[in-house]
Task: structure prediction
Amino acid sequence: MTEPGASQPRRHFLGSFGAALAAVGLGLPSLAGGEELLAGTSAASSHDDWMKPLKGKHRQIFHATVAGDAAMLMANNFLDAYTEEFEAKPGEANAVIGIHSGALSLGFNDAAWAKYSLGKGTGVTDPATKEPAAKNIFASGGRLGIEESQKRGIVFLMCNTQLRMRSRAFAAERRVAYETVYGDLKAARLSGMILVPALVVAINRAQEAGFTYARV
Result:
């Protein structure tokens, strides 16, 4: 099991959303239309739809930059602690993992890992073969698998800006059209892997809506 590295301090930016969040936390009447969680963001957008079901009092986004299970470890620990130590009821704690940079490979299926040598490119070794992983060893299996984490309600976001950059690099390396590689990788995302325009913006908008932040 990979232990998470040093994380930046959590930052919680409420802004004008503070009063609305306080009202929700106290069980007071919420804003009309079920959009109270997005009240503090700059403008309504379909790109924020992933936030709408997450109505817990305690909501955190984990920013993953390295291919490994550290983000899943932290997100699951977050949920466990709130449930076991703070007696949070189901849905009162929400965890989101945003993948970016080297962690982008977490979001692809086995076929993409084999085709684009993602294990070798990210330095991930398959413990069964002792060779660079030719499949996504983080996709499922065990408590920290992506599939198992999603079943607990943990949401996964993938940065589309990073996906485009990675696609351009692979296209240049293989001398094929960028559009072909981008389309291939986009289609190879694991089930439930939500593509957002830019993770840095998704994090910003999540913080505006009351999420706290931790870098993995």
